TrEMBL record:
InterPro entries: ABC_BtuC-like, ABC_transptr_permease_BtuC. Belongs to the binding-protein-dependent transport system permease family. FecCD subfamily. It is a multi-pass membrane protein. Signal peptide: none annotated. It comes from Microbacterium fluvii. This is FecCD family ABC transporter permease. SUPFAM superfamilies: ABC transporter involved in vitamin B12 uptake, BtuC (SSF81345).
């Protein structure tokens, strides 16, 4: 896409006022609070709102409540926290990937980054005997970065360079190949299968403060880097020529934003498994209501992702009661129609 064409497309897009964006932000914050309350309320034992308040208050005071409902609430706080962090990170990762590639299909799951991180962790457990969240994290990051580089390389080969369709096809083929390798490693090893049976689908059910403590610093750094890239990503949306004219280092911006996006995805995959479609759905939904300004799109995507994954986890517990349906299954069920809708659009060459 030429810079003139990109500029024309932005010019033809209706402007979104600051007041509307503030309203969307307020709604998103309220939605996060509601999703937290719902997540703490529903599980194997539903609890009342008063018990939720009692459980949270006792947790802040460092006390163990005597009421069984409040105790259940406290046991769900780590799970809810991980769902919020993971959802925000995945949505932010997807928004970054869509911005730097100008590809409406860019998403950690579709581009194979999730699967690459998962394969690295599976290899580590099956052959290296790793068991700590810290080891999971670094292996997942190695797998995610290698996969991202490979998919981008394959998608850029041939006439026309990198295009949305070529990247999506390269990601789909890579995901299929890596998934087959994961199955080949798991099937002969029953102990590894038991370890990854739920993790491989995408699940936040085994959250703990130790795992959250390992990934939280990585997520904070990745998020800060992403937000600092927002203005430069806005310039990239106008085309590389215009961005260079505005003094934006195009290559460095893409590399830094890509590192932030892959790091966010890898950290989540290390502790929750390959959860797909969050990074695809949320940025598109936010773009419809808040416009394309990355300074608003990125933080709103993070809030939307937190809401989506937390509600998906809650729905999974309600639908599968007395057991549960993994959050990754719920997000896939919700995300498949979105992917179909995007694929049916005629103008898919760039955002």
């Amino acid at each position: 896409m030429t810079s003139d064409t990109a500029t024309a497309r932005r010019a033809s897009t209706p402007a979104v006022g600051a007041r509307r964006r503030v309203v969307v932000l307020a709604v998103a914050v309220v939605a996060v609070l509601v999703s937290v309350v719902l997540s703490l309320s529903f599980g194997s034992r539903p609890v009342s709102f008063d018990e939720v308040v009692e459980g949270i208050s006792a947790w802040f005071r460092g006390e163990i409540p005597t009421d069984i409902g409040a105790i259940a609430v406290q046991s769900r706080i780590p799970r809810t926290t991980l769902a919020l962090l993971a959802g925000a990170a995945l949505a932010l990762s997807g928004a970054l990937m869509q911005a730097i590639t100008r590809n409406p299909l860019a998403d950690p799951g579709i581009l194979g980054v999730n699967t690459g991180a998962a394969l690295a962790v599976v290899i580590g457990i099956a052959f290296l005997g790793i068991s700590s969240p810290f080891q999971y994290l670094w292996l997942a990051m190695v797998g995610a970065f290698l996969t991202a580089f490979f998919v981008y390389f394959v998608g850029s080969v041939g006439p026309g360079g990198t295009t949305p369709i070529k990247l999506a096809l390269a990601g789909a083929a890579t995901t299929a190949a890596l998934s087959s390798l994961i199955s080949a490693i798991l099937l002969p090893r029953q102990s590894v299968i038991d370890e990854f049976r739920y993790w491989q689908v995408g699940n936040v059910g085994r959250a703990g403060w130790d795992t959250i403590g390992v990934i939280a610093p990585v997520l904070v750094v990745g998020t800060l880097i992403a937000l600092l890239c927002a203005s430069s990503l806005n310039a990239l949306a106008l085309g590389d020529d215009v961005a260079v004219g505005l003094g934006v280092p195009v290559g460095r911006t893409r590399i830094v934003a890509a590192i932030a996006g892959v790091t966010l995805c890898a950290a989540v995959t290390a502790v929750a498994g390959p959860i797909g479609f969050v990074g695809l759905m949320v940025p598109h939904a936010v773009r419809q209501v808040a416009g394309t300004d990355q300074r608003w799109l990125l933080p709103l995507s993070a809030l939307g992702g937190a809401v989506l994954l937390t509600l998906s986890d809650t729905i999974g517990r309600i639908v599968g009661s007395p057991g549960e349906v993994e959050a990754g299954i719920i997000t896939a069920f919700l995300g498949a129609p979105v992917l179909i809708a995007i694929a049916r659009r005629t103008r898919m060459k760039a955002l």
